[in-house]
From TrEMBL, chains A, B:
SUPFAM superfamilies: Soluble quinoprotein glucose dehydrogenase
InterPro entries for the chain: 6-blade_b-propeller_TolB-like, Glc/Sorbosone_DH, Quinoprot_gluc/sorb_DH_b-prop
UniProt cross-references to PANTHER family, sorted A to Z: ALDOSE SUGAR DEHYDROGENASE YLII (PTHR19328:SF75), HEDGEHOG-INTERACTING PROTEIN (PTHR19328)
Every Glucose/Sorbosone dehydrogenase domain range: 16-333
Name of the protein in question: Glucose/Sorbosone dehydrogenase domain-containing protein
One Pfam short name: GSDH
The organism's place on the tree of life at top rank: Bacteria
Amino acid sequence: MEESFALVTVTEGIPNPWSFTFLPRGDVLITQRSGKLWRVEAASGRRSEVGGLPEIDAGGQGGLLDIVLHPGYSSNGWIYMSHVVSSSGGSSTAVSRARLDGNRLTDLERVFTADNAGSTTRHFGSRLVFDDEGYLYVSLGDRGESGRAQDLSDHAGTLLRLRDDGSIPGDNPYGAAFSYGHRNVQGMVFDPVSREVWAHEHGARGGDEVNIIKRGANYGWPRISYGRNYDGSRIGIGTAAPGMEQPLVYWDPSIAPSGMAVYTGDAFPSWKGDIFVGALAGQHLRRLVREGTRIVSQEVLLEKRVGRIRDVRQGPEGALCILTDERNGSLYRLEPPES
Amino acid sequence: MEESFALVTVTEGIPNPWSFTFLPRGDVLITQRSGKLWRVEAASGRRSEVGGLPEIDAGGQGGLLDIVLHPGYSSNGWIYMSHVVSSSGGSSTAVSRARLDGNRLTDLERVFTADNAGSTTRHFGSRLVFDDEGYLYVSLGDRGESGRAQDLSDHAGTLLRLRDDGSIPGDNPYGAAFSYGHRNVQGMVFDPVSREVWAHEHGARGGDEVNIIKRGANYGWPRISYGRNYDGSRIGIGTAAPGMEQPLVYWDPSIAPSGMAVYTGDAFPSWKGDIFVGALAGQHLRRLVREGTRIVSQEVLLEKRVGRIRDVRQGPEGALCILTDERNGSLYRLEPPES
């Protein structure tokens, strides 16, 4: 069934926003990649800057990136952010947490710094997701150096699983790393249906993938891929190999996916349980209709209507919210039309 | 490192034995496919028949198959068996449990009957494995009708996950079924390292596979396979497809795998954590050396020395035990040579 919706602008005019999260009373926090954090009041729509941020090494694809609340936020107040920091090897992806006191972060602490240093400013990841046992997953990328994704000697090209204090669970397969062979993961969710982490990643020319993240698994980059290098040459050894995971779906041509949400609200009944993915190059919101862990159909929404979509999350009252990229980034709410 | 070992015969002369399990004091129970259960005393080596078995429809590949102890055996005494029963559609795979009183099963109850009825006597599965949360996995096969493995409308070609009383956990993806696209799974373990269920399955001509079993996943048979049909024609659409799992390793030519164990003992230090697989057609014991969830090398042991191997389990004191098939089936213990 096709759902009709109203598209409401929540706030606009933020340069390259990257992520957002809703506080319990409906205020929203929005990260700006260049290193700002914004709070938009639900009641007034007024936007103000939040101070007390962690160190941020902004440039290229790096800066202040994801933001999520701890699952126990209502009692512990922790807000988690991923951000790029200067490191001896260039720059690395880090995770910090802090509490919010009005418009100021307090109790700031860096809980983890990934060992993914590199001198490029590309492929930092990074999304943050808590699962239902309280483990924190941190997506990363290959730092634009594809050979690092099959090499477990550092974190480039891996996806991490941590305790909420940044320590490493004893049952991880490879230290902090939980899976590997990833090119650049900019969308990740914990799926309450399968109780597993789902993620998508950018391919090169073609070959964007959606995967279920499994302990110890190898997602194949750059040994296997459904895409090609930008010069048209073949990548690795083909599209499949034993011991390497196949995606649930792939996109060729690339849509350049960013942001991911599982819709669990009641406002759009026919969307319940579906996966939503933002598209940068594709400039649309993509709905993946699933049965269990199979993607059975796809729908393209908002094509070329709002531009490049960087993030998608569910908001209060079952609204679906999207954040657009570019100089004049905006947060929109999709809600049922007034009857 | 190559381990040397002594090969000790525990008992011999059982026609087509299928599985075995050790009781806490070292006695061993051995199933005979045609419908007998044997108890061999650890101290004397004396073998006696156990009475009070469940219904068994023996014939072809069907009969009394796997046997395992409940993880809480020491307090609850439950022994689980898989066995083939007559059903309105021909024959089906069932799971029963009972307690053992001397040489007699008591408190016998059938906890589950799979909806995999068919008129062939092929591809019933069936191994039984408990995971560390107490869920019971039951492997099945496609009943020799390959089209059924991609069809979730019945249990043929699926792998089941149950509670210990045979009821269906609410978080299963497809009713009793946990994964699908399986041809015939005759080896399965719970791997304590990855905390996941590993299984192997028979290919057709080539294409035997080892897989990690994931919630909701599709293992591809007969849409994808590394094997060919017995007439040499191609199977399905090739070796890989999005949404279908790739094996960790495959064997072409087929070894016809049966039985599987993770070695956790101290008697053979260099085997610790390795996976052992029996081979019927291959007539050997195969050691899979793994790092986390990767198979990094393989070793063939006992090639053509004891015949077709139906099952492999770890025994008391870190011995590795194998059960051979055919008219004169035997149980052997591999133990360190006397120094």
